[in-house]
Amino acid sequence: MTALVLTRDQAGVRTLSLNSPDRLNALTAALATQLLTALQAAAQDPGVRVVVLTGEGRGFCAGQDLSEVAGPLMSGQPLDLEAHLNDHYRPVILAIREMNKPVIAAVNGVAAGAGASLALACDLRVSSESAQWVQIFSNIALIPDAGSTWFLPHLVGFGRAFELMALAEKVSAGQAHALGLCQQVYPDETFTEQTQAYAAALAARPAQALALTKQALNAAMSSRLEDALDLEAKLQQQAASSQDFREGVQAFMEKRVARWAGA
Ligand code: T3D
């Protein structure tokens, strides 16, 4: 079986790289299935503290592989996109959101359509200088899917999200950064190294506190302030019961760097 997702481990960071470079890592059902399996394995592996999602070659991900739908579409066969999205995209997006570890999208090249959604579903995004981001769906008269209608307005506001989606404008790395779509932009030549260093810095942070922070932020995205305050209090109690909390306070008092145990 062709490995459509490559896996590399370094210093607690697992890098998952989409591996269909000739088509800019466009998503087939097989690729989405392998990505889901890889995400689930990373979630369950205690040695993995941070996950990086990137693409092989010059693209990050060009969205749905249109060669997969072109045949049936042209021959007039009915396409069940609702089932396709529910079976292949939804589990991947939820696996990223539900993973109790930071997931970074390392957007090494164009992120288009559901490929952009994939990046937006991650907790953090870094972009290479030459990467382009495009909500390309309306170019083929589709609506944004794989979570873009939820993630994008949260990140950039309703009006800007609608404009990006309606006009399918290509956004450069610099624009993506200015809009708040990505946290860092790195030169192409040093992109892999700088991404690894960024991920390693996160991997060195107290893992349980980060997991609980992600849980609280996930809930806060769709909750009332009162509910967010309740959940914060509950999760803070859990964080404060950890060995890392005791170590953090002790290290502060002793004016030294904390040694995180991850629990
Ligand atoms: O089925 C469902 O469930 C519906 C779900 C839909 C979700 C979606 O994601 S809809 C959006 C689908 N994606 C697109 O419409 C993007 C199509 N691609 C492009 O518009 C351009 O390729 C890009 C703007 C992304 C990049 O342009 P450029 O000039 O850098 O590269 P290129 O030359 O167009 O592409 C390079 C190769 O990749 C090329 O193949 P070739 O000619 O060298 O053999 C191209 O056909 C192939 N490729 C790029 N994107 C796709 C693709 N092949 C299949 N599917 C693609 N999405």
From TrEMBL:
Keyword annotations of the record: Isomerase
UniProt superkingdom: Bacteria
InterPro entries membership: ClpP/crotonase-like_dom_sf (IPR029045), Enoyl-CoA_hyd/isom_CS (IPR018376), Enoyl-CoA_hydra/iso (IPR001753), Enoyl-CoA_hydra_C (IPR014748)
Pfam families found in the cross-reference section: ECH_1
Record keyword Ribonucleoprotein present: no
Coiled-coil intervals: none
SUPFAM superfamilies according to UniProt: ClpP/crotonase
GO molecular function: isomerase activity
Stated family: Belongs to the enoyl-CoA hydratase/isomerase family.
Protein name: 2-(1,2-epoxy-1,2-dihydrophenyl)acetyl-CoA isomerase
Species this protein is from: Deinococcus radiophilus
